[in-house]
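From the shared-data thread, chain only:
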Amino acid sequence: MNTRKTLSLLALSLSATPFAVAAEFTLFAAGVNPNDISTYYNADQWPYPTCWAAAGSNVVAHWQDHHVENLPEGTPTGTKVYESFLDLFSTPAGGNSHYFYQWWLGYYPPTSFNGTLKENWESLGIGGYYEDIYSWSEIQDMAWLHYTGNSDYSARHASRAIYYALQNGYSFAIGVPNLRHAFTVYGATFDPETELVTSLYLCDSGEVIFKKESMSRARVNQVGNKLCVVGYYAEENDFVGVDNGRYLDNIYFLGNTETETLDFVYSGVPIPEPSAFALLAGLGVLVFAGGRRHRQSREI
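Structure, as tokens:
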């Protein structure tokens, strides 16, 4: 086969080859494998429901494992983070996950949580593990919430916040206000065209919605101007039109992130459809073979 003809055929085929618009992509927090339960935390929030603290402790434990180089001596790690919180209270305590972060790092008093402290809580010496490392202003910058509970709520802006956290390797807690519940999020799938989250990889410590002890992949839709968790993810079911009120609310971060820099960055390079790869590979073989025969004929 003439090499020029082969190249012309390749060019013609490429022009007719279906190219997909940039495909969805997934980001995970540092070190997280959704299929390996040893790579993430999912605190059991019992004996009483403190989902915000369970989610907060998951985030703290992950942050300490992957983002702290020199752990202060005596700082609990892993599942001991949540157990330390439970050691403070004789009744359930209510709050928000970023309060948990602030208390753990050093400057938020445990008496501000809505619960009954145990009589000997002062002797326990729990919390404030980083007070010799960070100032109060630094802790406020690190342990903060992305507030979405207002009329200006934007599904796109919330998606950017989620993208930015995961891009930097951070897990985070996210609220579901009508259920008075919180999840721990370790990963998310994004649509680069709309810049919206389409699914979340999360742990539901209280198993309020997702009844499993390991990580769940949850479908996320835009409902109105909000993101809404609509159920377990399934390729064959996009839950179009579903509105069950499971709106995602505030996003509770622990990490060196700034709300002013929540930019969605994607190359937008077209990705060939799977059916095109076989065609491209076959044409490549033809080009190689044609060129080889052409060289051999000239040598003869």
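The helical segments are 3-16, 51-67, 80-86, 97-105, 121-124, 136-142, 155-167, 274-299.
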